[in-house]
Write a structure and sequence with these properties.
Helix content of chain C: over 70%
Largest interface: B-C, 111 and 107 residues
Structural class of chain C: mainly alpha
CATH architecture of the largest domain in chain C: Orthogonal Bundle
Order of helices and strands of chain C: HHHHEHHHHHHHH
Number of domains of chain C: 3
Oligomer: heterotrimer
CATH topology of the largest domain in chain A: D-Maltodextrin-Binding Protein, domain 2
Number of strands of chain C: 1
Distance between the termini of chain C: 28 Å
CATH superfamily of the largest domain in chain C: MetI-like
Largest sheet of chain A: 8 strands, mixed
Largest sheet of chain C: none
Radius of gyration of chain A: 21 Å
CATH class of the largest domain in chain A: Alpha Beta
Structural class of chain A: alpha/beta
Number of strands of chain A: 13
Number of helices of chain C: 12
CATH class of the largest domain in chain C: Mainly Alpha
Helix content of chain A: 25-40%
Radius of gyration of chain C: 25 Å
Strand content of chain C: under 5%
CATH architecture of the largest domain in chain A: 3-Layer(aba) Sandwich
CATH topology of the largest domain in chain C: MetI-like fold
Shape of chain C: globular
Number of domains of chain A: 2
Strand content of chain A: 15-25%
Chains: A alpha/beta (393), B mainly alpha (288), C mainly alpha (286)
Shape of chain A: globular
Order of helices and strands of chain A: HHEEHEHEHEHEHHEHEHEEHHEEHHHEHH
Distance between the termini of chain A: 44 Å
CATH superfamily of the largest domain in chain A: Periplasmic binding protein-like II
Chain lengths: 393, 288, 286
């Protein structure tokens, strides 16, 4: 029943301008830019372990609502004989990192083979810089060629030696049409007096600063002090004159749902899942932020087995099912943006409403308007302190 | 006859041993490490080294004075509120509860069974800008027409008070229940009014409970961060929030450690002053 | 007591005075009922929303009534094991912490010994330490104990919970021991009981309410703890950890179900206990 309602909602809102061309589809048509010859740095023993310890965020895997099983994980076990010990014990990049840096900084294993961290927060890059990630066994991941183009050379891991995307999402502005006229720009959000005290901004520096910098006409993928200061001052002003009610993580959702907010800087996936047809999400006029949760193998993890799993997940057929779920079999999908080319075609077979949802399979135009924050800036101590002092009074 | 034993051989040490040893290992040792960390310098990328960096303490005090003071303020107000709100109920349960006492005590701690996040979300629903409570307060002109309860310092203090009520109510009950009702009867026969009897007899006898409740509420409340995070705006944030962000977001462990010690010192100072006022016997439980 | 007051009012010969005496008798009861209403209001909201069929992933707005959440209370992976773990830990930790705390309280209140002031400070310190550094420092201890391989999970969580609960138990039981009438014990000993028998038959029953209060308090703290648990749980997930984690994508209504259910079960168990006591008393009187 929940499933049906969601689909109905999604179908009602599917029209986001013209034919929803799936992004992976475009690339397949244009032809991808030559596959990288993946010479594996395989001094890795190519033997499968009995168990794969996979730590992930909650509700980030396809799940059978009746049996509580994870269909794709069960299928993986059937195929390879590897049991996935799946724990949903990550709820926040900062606190998870705070927890694992203890053992990792002492050269101890954290007994996990795969963990998932977000790229628009400093911790993913920090793991790589401190040498706490193992190199992927690329020879075991031929499906890596299915990685969508825009994700192939991120600035924190230019050759994808250590990380592979799990799912992506976008950050933009949501508004409640029963309470306000459409809020489509940062100008409106931060400076429209009608919205005073009725908006929230994300407490994530990567998200908020990307959006405001884009609104200022600056480039968030290459942050300069000047651009930073301009965006920072703008947000500061909105704090000082009480325009901004609170800085939130994803806890804007309940506030938005009960009507205490007119607009909120928010993540695309959440809004689709609120199931409230009066709340609309858009990429802001100046542009929005793109974030990607990445898989990585922490030091001490079993490289080969983890790589084999990653390869499995990058099979478009598998990804399609994981993404869309299968209402006929009571399977709920992930409903974020998949990083695998061709997944859309398979998703269509299981749940066409998901395949047509522009928030899950955004078109090229949308994707061109979302940017990833400069990872150098993410570790700039001065910026970090300024930001924390701003959101923590 | 003085039943207070002095130097009664090994008995006190035997009584203390299990608990104190446990705390010594699992609290004092980690605390020692924290102290060590508080004097380190460096940064996360290249590592921290121990260098008697007292400036960590000075910087913390200097930069975050407002939050320190605010925390003690909020905790103080919340403690006072909790005392005033809980005392009558603790009295009622102790003297009128009868066989239902234990059930009533259970009701007091019951909210904790639904986890902090869920009960706070429930409160947010109740206190919503468009909800019954806010609308009523607006029509009574307690709140301005665009006034709200959430995301204010009122919400933060109220949140702290609510979540610490059991910590105040239970110790109060524990000490009130001990009072022999006949003492109160006798006092009422001697004094002209019930109120007098209460103030001169009952309240002083319940002082150990008042002190216990105050300590169990004020001390942890001062370091609280979660109420400010969910129910407040940036200008209501407490020192707990700053320590949280120093540790998690800025990975500045020495700063977080130093701030924690300053907070602890501030709390101990407040407790010391409080002990002066109520008398150290209440705090430490001896006549000498 | 109230008879005296009413007597006085009558002798003053005013109906108003009688009414006032009546009000004074019940104002405390009315106040207490209001207090419990205030205390349990969010639980009522939580219970109501446990019957909600959420419009999407988030259970924030009422959509429609359903029994499904209760029928499939463990229909979300991980939720059942998390609440079982939390209950286990809370039970064991509160028992041990209360026991250790009671012993410490006895020593502190009744004996003078070297290191008394220090022990008192030692008890207050864990209360004043911010949770994040408390949790992280304990984690560091476990990590540095390389001479044994520390298995993060049940035992580390248990140790952490006992650690921060002891102080609460000590302070609560102390509130009872301070001002405890020692003459009763004196009398027992004069009658020939030794220290241990006196303790068992006189002291313990008299401080029982304090021990029960300490148990309840420790249980509540343990079952609701997040920060310290998070750092020391390895990959085990307790109920608060589960709730905080799932909140990112919408805590399922089953979370409401479990919270409400525990409340109902605990209250029912207590009610049964009271009724049994009442029956016993009746039988005893008969």
């Amino acid at each position: 029943m929940t499933q049906e309602l969601t689909r109905r909602q999604l179908l009602e809102r599917a029209a986001m301008g013209g034919a929803a061309i799936t992004f992976p589809g475009i690339l397949a048509a244009c032809g991808s830019s030559g596959s990288k010859a993946s010479e594996g740095t395989t001094s890795v023993e190519q033997k499968l372990a009995k168990t794969l310890n996979f730590s992930n965020w909650t509700l980030y895997m396809d799940v059978n609502k009746k049996t509580k099983a994870f269909p794709s994980l069960d299928a993986f076990q059937k195929k390879t004989g590897v049991h996935v010990n799946y724990t949903e014990d990550i709820n926040d990049n900062a606190s998870f990192f705070g927890k694992i840096q203890g053992p990792l900084s002492r050269g101890q294993s954290i007994h996990r083979d795969i963990v998932v961290l977000t790229d628009n927060d400093r911790y993913l890059g920090l793991m790589l810089r401190k040498g706490w990630a193992e190199k992927l066994d690329k020879s075991a991941i031929p499906n890596m060629k299915n990685l969508v183009e825009v994700q192939k050379h991120p600035n924190f891991d230019p050759d994808r030696e250590y990380t592979l995307p799990w799912q992506s999402g976008m950050s933009g502005i949501a508004y409640n049409d029963t309470l306000t006229d459409p809020v489509l720009s940062v100008d409106d959000l931060l400076e429209n007096p009608k919205l005073k005290g009725k908006i929230t901004v994300l407490n994530s520096m990567g998200d908020a600063m990307t959006i405001v910098m884009l609104a200022n006409g600056d480039d968030p993928t290459n942050v300069t002090d000047k651009a930073w200061n301009a965006a920072f001052k703008r947000i500061q002003k909105a704090v000082d004159n009480k325009q901004i009610r609170q800085f939130t993580g994803n806890d804007y959702a309940p506030i938005l749902a009960r009507g205490d907010l007119m607009a909120a800087m928010s993540w695309s996936g959440d809004i689709a899942q609120l199931g409230n047809k009066h709340i609309h999400w858009n990429v802001p006029e100046g542009g929005g932020a793109l974030w990607t949760d990445n898989m990585l193998i922490p030091k001490g993890g079993n490289v080969y087995t983890a790589s084999v799993y990653m390869n499995y997940v990058y099979d478009p057929k598998v990804q399609g099912l994981m993404e869309a779920g299968d209402p006929k079999r009571n399977i709920t999908g992930i409903y974020y943006i998949p990083p695998v080319k061709g997944a859309g075609a398979f998703a269509k077979k299981y749940d066409p409403s998901v395949a047509n949802n522009p928030l899950i399979f955004p078109n090229a135009k949308t994707l061109s308007k979302v940017k990833i924050f400069d990872s150098k800036a993410l570790n700039n101590q001065k910026y970090l302190e300024q930001w924390q002092n701003l959101i923590s009074g | 006859m003085n039943l207070f034993h002095r130097h009664r051989g090994l008995t006190p040490y035997l009584l203390l041993a299990p608990g104190v040893l446990f705390l010594a290992l699992f609290f004092v040792v980690p605390l020692g490490f924290l102290a060590y960390q508080s004097l380190q310098s460096g940064n996360f990328d290249f590592g921290y080294t121990f260098s008697w960096q007292w400036s960590n303490y000075w910087d913390a005090l200097h930069n975050y004075e407002a939050q320190f003071i605010r925390s003690l303020e909020y905790a103080g107000i919340a403690t006072l509120l909790a005392l005033v709100i809980s005392y009558p109920v603790a009295y009622w349960i102790a003297f009128r509860g009868g066989r239902w006492k234990n059930l009533l005590l259970l009701f007091i701690v019951a909210p904790f069974f639904v986890t902090y996040l869920i009960r706070t979300l429930a409160w947010e629903t109740i206190l919503s800008d468009n909800g019954f409570v806010v609308n009523t307060l607006q029509s009574l002109h307690v709140l301005g027409p665009s006034g709200r309860l959430l995301a204010t310092s009122t919400a933060v203090v109220t949140g702290i008070t609510y979540n610490f009520l059991p910590f105040m109510a239970l110790p109060l009950y524990v000490s009130l229940e001990q009072i022999d009702a006949r003492l109160i009867e006798a006092a009422e026969d001697l004094y002209a009014s019930k109120w007098h009897a209460f103030w001169r007899v009952t309240f002083p006898l319940s002082l150990p409970g008042v002190v216990a409740g105050t300590l169990l509420t004020f001390i942890p409340a001062a370091g609280d961060f979660i109420n400010a995070q969910l129910l407040g705006s940036p200008d209501n944030h407490m020192i707990g929030n700053v320590i949280q962000s120093k540790f998690l977001e800025l990975t500045d462990y020495p700063a977080a450690a130093a701030m924690s010690f300053i907070l602890m010192a501030g709390i101990l100072l407040a407790v010391f002053l409080y002990a002066r006022v109520v008398g150290t016997e209440q705090l430490t439980g001896t006549a000498g | 007591m109230s008879a005296v007051a009413v007597e006085r009012a009558r002798t003053r010969g005013s109906a108003l005075a009688t009414a006032w005496a009546f009000v004074k008798r019940y104002v405390l009861t009315v106040y207490s009922i209001l207090f419990f209403a205030y205390l349990l209001l969010p639980i009522a909201v939580v219970a109501v929303f446990s019957f909600n069929n959420p419009p999407g992933k988030f259970n924030f707005t009422w959509n429609e009534f359903t029994w499904d959440n209760w029928r499939y209370w463990n229909g979300v992976p991980g939720i059942e094991s998390s609440i079982i773990l939390s209950l286990e830990i809370a039970l064991i930790a509160s028992l041990i912490a209360t026991a250790l705390g009671t012993l410490i309280a006895l020593a502190l209140v009744r004996y003078g010994f070297r290191g008394r002031a220090t022990t008192n400070i030692l008890i207050f310190l864990p209360l004043s330490t911010p949770e994040i550094v408390l949790g992280a420092s304990l984690l560091t201890l476990f990590l540095n104990a390389t001479f044994i391989t520390v298995q993060f999970g049940f035992w580390t969580i248990l140790i952490a919970h006992i650690m921060f609960c002891i102080s609460f138990a000590v302070v609560t039981v102390k509130a009872r021991l301070v001002g405890f009438d020692r003459h009763l014990e004196e009398a027992a000993m004069d009658l020939g009981a030794n220290e241990w028998t006196t303790f068992r038959k006189v002291t313990l029953p008299l401080i029982a309410p304090a021990i029960l209060a300490a148990l309840l308090l420790c249980f509540a703290i343990s079952i609701d703890d997040f920060v310290v648990t998070y750092f020391n749980s390895g990959s085990r997930v307790t109920f608060p950890l589960y709730v905080w984690g799932s909140a990112r994508n919408g805590a399922p209504p089953q979370v409401n179900v479990i919270g409400t259910a525990i409340f109902v079960i605990a209250v029912s168990a207590m009610l049964v206990n009271v009724v049994v006591q009442m029956r016993r008393e009746k039988r005893g009187a008969a």
